Amino acid sequence: MRLDRRHLVRSCLTLPLLMGRSAKAEDNESLRVRASRHARIYGVAVTTEQLLSDVEYRKVIVREAGILVAEGETKRNVLQPQRNLFNFSGTDAILKFAQRNAQLMRGHTLVWHRANPKWLTEEIITTRDEKLLTSYINAVVGRYRGQFNSWDVVNEAIEPEDGLSSGLREQSIWFQAFGETYIETAFHCARAADPKAQLFYNEANLEGDVAWSERRRRATIKLLERLISKGVPIDALGIQGHLKAYRVKYSDDVFSRFLDDVASLGLRILITEFDVADAGGPEDYVQRDADVASLTRRFLDVAFSKPSVIGCLSWGISDKYSWLSRDDRYKWPDGQPSRGLPFDQEFKQKPMWDAMVSAYDKTAL
Ligand code: G3I
After folding, report:
1. What's residue 13's pLDDT?
2. Which of 137, 244, 282, 286 could disulfide-link 248, Cβ–Cβ 3.0 to 4.6 Å?
3. Residue 287 and residue 296: Cα distance in Å, rounded?
């Protein structure tokens, strides 16, 4: 099911009717409806645990998200904890939830240097058996064939600090076992397993106006050019969008030029993991909320000024559950929550939500 604009508008605008009630005021104000009005999508990374245990959270997800992705359930350490054991229960539960609420679903992620089960890490280096890559993709993408709108086929294959001239991540079991060809193998396999799903290459830290981020952008463009020149079936680039309000400079022009470079390759673009870390900011959270909202607006205004950008997913929707508050690099030493998402811990809209809505509204149909 391709993420085309017609489908987007239809699937998101029918939600209130599907839920057996008229489109109440707040539904019309939701990010889900506002995004679809401009033929774009907004979505959220969710977990089964939060969906099953938190009624407030569930309500916000249904109202605000047009597409869901699993924060952890569709990673290999969860899906295939043992060589002969698959556990699809978490991903199945999120897919069922999405289908019940007329939401799309995307898969994250098939091939990554992290979140691999121990047995795989050990076996792949000794056997270098390509079936450890292809049979997994066939099993997972095949199971969700026709139900997943898109896949992050390969995630974070770039790491210029590893010293390769290509800028590829050498410290990866996949690169160690197969060299760069693991990437094209994965995409060809995913395409064959579900010809309708949109296939993404997903990458981190492409957004900053700093030298190391520029090196990542250049290496990413070069990789995409190589893949496309070989006829690798890649449809889109996922730009994760984990911004750092007080630690990494951002420039509209730098980001805009990069989006143009990607679009010139004929690829669509999705902001796949948007949030704004407020670590290092002022003690006054009202000021932090304002700064986060202002950066959100600038970033999404540039993104949504490009027809190739099909939308944005945030990596969570409420500060109550953000990974930023669990990660040593971004969490607040005094234990206060990171405020990098559109809703606060009590699911109240924040200035960041307003900034996102304005950015979606700003772009004409
Ligand atoms: O589920 C286990 C739990 O049983 C155990 O008690 C607990 C204690 O260690 O760990 C739990 O698993 C954790 C999992 O998140 C679920 O919460 C893993 O340790 C932890 O490593 C894992 O972190 C996730 C990380 O990816 C690695 O998969 C984060 O939640 C998730 O937000 C983060 O997301 C990544 C994207 O996939 C790729 N882009 C960057 C982004 C942020 O790092």
Report:
1. 43
2. 244
3. 14
> Has this prediction a pTM greater than 0.85?
yes
**What spacing in Å lies between the alpha carbon of 155 and ligand 1's midpoint?**
15
Q: What structural domains and CATH numbers belong to the chain?
A: 5-362 (3.20.20.80)
Residue 207 is a catalytic residue = no
Q: Quote the CA–CA distance of 19 and 272 in Å, as a whole number.
A: 27
Provide CB contacts within 8 A for 25, sequence distance 6+: none
CA 56/CA 51 separation, integer angstroms: 9
Which pLDDT does position 10 carry in this prediction? 46
Classify 228 as helix, strand or coil.
helix
Ligand 1 centroid from CA 115, angstroms: 8
In this structure, which residue's CA is closest to atom 4 in ligand 1? 78
R_g (Cα) of the chain, nearest Å: 20
Q: What is the mean pLDDT of residues 66-71?
A: 98
Looking at residue 363, its pLDDT comes to 79
Is the Cβ–Cβ distance between 82 and 115 less than 8 Å?
A: no
The Å distance, Cα 364 to ligand 1 centre, comes to 37
Maximum Cα–Cα distance for the chain, whole Å?
59
Residues touching ligand 1 (Cβ under 6 Å) are 71-72, 75, 114-115, 155, 204, 240, 273, 323
Two tokens, residue 53: 């245990």
Each residue's pLDDT tens digit, 18-29: 433 334 445 558
Determine the Cα–Cα distance for residues 251 and 255; give it in Å rounded to an integer: 6
Q: Which residue has the tokens 């007329």?
A: 102
Q: How many residues in the chain?
A: 365
Torsion angle, CA of 243/79/146/17, rounded to 10 degrees?
Answer: -60
C-alpha 14 chain-centroid distance: 24
Specify whether 170 is catalytic. no
* Alpha-carbon distances of 222 from 165, 201, 228, rounded to whole Å: 11, 13, 10
pLDDT in tens, 176-221: 999 999 999 999 999 999 999 999 999 999 999 999 999 999 999 9
